[in-house]
Amino acid sequence: MLLYRSLMELLPKAVIILFRLSNFSFSKSQFEIKIGENYFSDNLIILDLKDSNSIVKGRVEMFNLVDYSSGRLLNPGIMGWYRFLPFMECYHGVVSLTHNLKGKIIVDNKIFAFENGKGYIEKDWGTSMPSSWIWIQSNNFSNPNASFMLSIADIPWIGKSFNGFLGFFYHDGLIHHFSTYRSTKLYLEVSGNNSADIKIENRKNAFMIKAISNNTGMLKAPVEGDMDRRIAESIDATLLISMLDKKGNILFQNSTNITGLEMVGDFNKLQGLLK
Questions:
Q1: Among 55, 105, 147, 249, which is least packed by CB within 10 angstroms?
Q2: Spatial distance between the Cα atoms of 114 and 134, rounded to a whole number of angstroms
Q3: Is 95 in contact with 42 (CB distance < 8 Å)?
Q4: pTM confidence score
Q5: What is the pairing mode between strands 132-138 and 117-126?
Q6: How far does Cα 99 stand from its chain's mean position?
Q7: What is the CA radius of gyration of the chain?
Q8: How many independent structural domains does the chain possess?
């Protein structure tokens, strides 16, 4: 997310470069994609893009990755047992909760260094995104090892749909898991078109979260396999998060303006209590 944010700040306008399908390849055994001379994996990004107006070249390495661990034997990844449901239109995975970066990207002779930077990697795969969702992610806190992600969605399945959520808060070496399939309650209140207040409770802690969208850019998203949908994402959203114990003592409290936030579709129907 931080790499994406930096490139968006450097590029004066959207640059669309088309590739033939024959230029695309991927690995079935590990997280690895190649598009022309561009390479993406869990430990390396190589960019080599150019058109008549812009040139983007560079190499960024990722290291000290923190893996997501569900903590249960038959619970692979952040989706848990939902990963085994047939006919799901979209699947979600977290590759790295947080990690360090080094390298540089050159955009039209402008150099952007990623030394001492922070990164995060997640992935989606399938034919279509949900009809409505709210997604929040940041690992830009005063605690350099803290990381947070939450997704709340109206999930289509076999002609119907259901509201669900999944996410985590990583802090002091511990992963606090939230999801519909765990002993977790979530309450969502949406204000207008750009603000969400969320309370999450599990057996040990409560989390108070407020997210406010700021500037947005348009991204492509799949609809029945074609990238025909346009969604708005803020990469400079404001996030306030507090973690409390059951006695109300504050264990963590911080805010940041480097946050990814998507509020898509009729997200108002996600409001209320989810458990």
A1: 249
A2: 29
A3: yes
A4: 0.87
A5: unpaired
A6: 14
A7: 19
A8: 1
